[in-house]
Amino acid sequence: MYKVRSLLSQTFTFMPPRWPRKPDRKDPDFRKLDDRMNFAVHVGVSATINSGLWFFHILKNTTWEWLPGLTLGWVGVLLLHLIYISAIANYDPTPPKST
Fold first, then answer.
1. By residue range, what is the domain housing residue 37?
2. Alpha carbon distance 96, 78 (integer Å)
3. CA distance 65 to 59
4. 3 state SS of 91
5. Which phi and psi angles does 40 have, rounded to 5°?
6. Is 6's pLDDT higher than 80?
7. pTM for the whole structure
8. Is 6 inside a domain boundary?
C-alpha cells in the first residue's frame, strides 16, 4: 500500500502547476505562461457558453438566427487570440531603461 501511495504522489507532483519564482509580469517566462493560461480560460468560457446555447437551441427547437454568427465570431476571436500568443507576442526580456 505504501508503494502505491508513493507512486501516486510522485505521479501527481506536477498538479497544480507552481511557479518557482515570485510572479512578475516583467519576467518573460511568466508572461508567456500567463498569456497561455488566459487563453485556456478564454477557450473554456467560450466552449461552456456556446455548448450551452447550442444545447438549448437544439433541445427547445428554437429559431435563434443569431447563434451561428455568435459562434463563428467567438471562434474568430479565439483564433486571433491564439495567433497573438503564438506568433505576435514578444516574450523577450524587457530592456533596462536608460537614465
1. 27-91
2. 33
3. 15
4. coil
5. -60, -40
6. no
7. 0.72
8. no
